Here is the input.
Amino acid sequence: MRFHVLTLFPDMIVNGMHTSITGRAIERGLIGLNTVDIRNYADNKHMRVDDYPYGGGAGMVMQAEPVYRAFEAVKEHISHPVRVVYLTPQGRVFNQEMAGELAGEEELVFLCGHYEGIDERVLEEIVTDPVSIGDYVLTGGELPAMVMMDAISRLVPGVLHNEESAVGESFQGYLLEYPQYSRPAVWREKAVPEVLLSGHHANVERWRREQSVLRTAKWRPDLLENAELTPKEREMLN
Ligand code: 6GU
Here is the structure.
């Protein structure tokens, strides 16, 4: 998987992505990261890339030409058509299913806006997928792009060490993950659930499944509509 990120703040992307698991994936060559500073494609000697909005209103708008040129520069390195994700609160809301779908692509372009947005004309020309990461407003698309790249990266084969950790967790099967415990067995008078110390694998699995169902009912009951529950489990919840 190779990510291309068009942004006015490439350092933010590079610093974030070169940390922890995504950083290791980049070092190991499992993930490629190419950041493009839109400012380098300004069409004036002052390197300005924003201007006042036609029709008036607050803030500045990123101009079409520098964004278009930055995208053309990225396309030089890509032979086939590529999906261009534009990070915007007006987009489709990102979820695990979208992460899975995008993880199947060989290359992805992320376009990060700042200020009040980007001139609509260039968006019409290059964007294939407008995406939001939730119903709140951020100052720019860089953090959302990193959220998406993180979620996508961990689905790329080899990025996570054990293949199990990408399956059977929260949102796979529309159930939240069961609680985890590690040493010590008693911490500040709070004991780890007995069954986890029993060594009885089938009982552990049963307990974890039950915890997943109960936890989902308590914290994310909206997910249960889609969850695959046994008739017994449905009955337990009623
Ligand atoms: Cl993708 N961009 C911005 N600026 N704010 C957001 C967002 C994206 N998703 C949620 N809020």
User: Anything to note?
Assistant: The radius of gyration is 22 Å. The domain at 172-237 is CATH 1.10.1270.20 (Trp Operon Repressor; Chain A).
